[in-house]
Design brief:
about 290 residues, mainly alpha, Four Helix Bundle (Hemerythrin (Met), subunit A)
Length: about 290
């Protein structure tokens, strides 16, 4: 029987910035184009948090029963370590995804019915990332999914739900957050290239190889700051406050560009997530108040 602390670790709290950042900056983008409906912003945050916890438990379950996590560097895997049964982790995943669905239904009913279809796609994407007979995370499409779900859909979806419309500023913010979120996964998969290769998990990092994966990470870190400059120059100069996260971005880059391997890359995941959160808060507050 897993302890409470093990269940919390299994939920991978270091990934929570991937859920919080898009809602924060999406709410700021909503304030940039209209009034903010705060209770809808709160529901959007519930959806995002429950979805990412559900994804993490679903990945733990699916990777665990496949044996992918038998020899893994990084946070505790509940199934792979034997701390919890596959059935209990699967139940935790379904409960989390159910919470996301319930909150999402309220959002859709009070905003636009077609959001139900978007929510269904998100939940299916969460499960089939590593679940099912042909998981797309095992075919190198994980980063694309993260960019789509926790970048474009999460940011623009929040902006639309909270204000009733989207704009170019919101789109640029969505691209930036998508790059940050994808960078977190790229760093994770860079760390796991040896074990993923051995277990047959063909991530994008496995396909690209070590050197090109590191190059991709550098690009994903710098794109959000280039977008910050663009938005500041052509839309709202307050958006330049997002550059406050640049030192954290550079700090996240150092282990990657220096050739760090294995556990030495773990700090990069946390620092990248923190950089994304600082960027989202600084940018969201700035453009929202402007």
């Amino acid at each position: 029987m897993a302890t409470v602390s093990q269940w919390i670790e299994g939920a991978r709290p270091r990934t929570l910035p991937n859920a919080i950042a898009p809602v924060v900056v999406g709410t700021g983008a909503a304030g940039h184009v209209g009034d903010i409906v705060w209770w809808k912003a709160a529901l959007a945050l519930v959806v995002s948090l429950a979805l990412i916890v559900g994804v993490n438990y679903a990945n733990d379950y699916s990777d665990g029963i496949r044996g992918t996590d038998d020899d893994r560097v990084g946070p505790l895997r509940l199934v792979g370590s034997g701390a919890a049964s596959p059935r209990s982790v699967k139940t935790a995943a379904f409960v989390s995804l159910g919470i996301a669905a319930a909150a999402g239904i309220v959002v859709a009913v009070t905003t636009a019915w077609w959001l139900l279809a978007v929510g269904a796609v998100c939940i299916l994407g969460a499960w089939f990332y590593t679940g099912g007979s042909r998981p797309y995370g095992y075919a190198g499409y994980g980063e694309v999914a993260v960019f789509l779900f926790f970048g474009l859909i999460a940011v623009l979806g929040t902006q639309f739900v909270v204000s009733g419309r989207v704009d170019v500023t919101g789109l640029m913010c969505a691209i930036a957050v998508g790059c940050f979120s994808s960078a977190v996964l790229v760093a994770n998969n860079l760390r796991d290239i040896p074990t993923d290769t051995e277990s047959g998990k063909i991530t994008l990092a496995v396909r690209l190889g070590d050197r090109r994966t590191r190059t991709l990470f550098v690009l994903l870190i710098f794109v959000p700051f280039l977008i910050t400059i663009w938005v500041g120059a052509f839309a709202d100069w307050w958006a330049l406050s997002g550059l406050l996260a640049l030192p954290l971005g550079i700090l996240a880059l150092r282990p990657v560009v220096s050739g760090a391997q294995g556990r030495a890359l773990i700090p990069t995941l946390a620092t990248t997530g923190f950089a994304m959160l600082v960027w989202a808060v600084a940018t969201g507050v700035a453009i929202g108040l402007s």
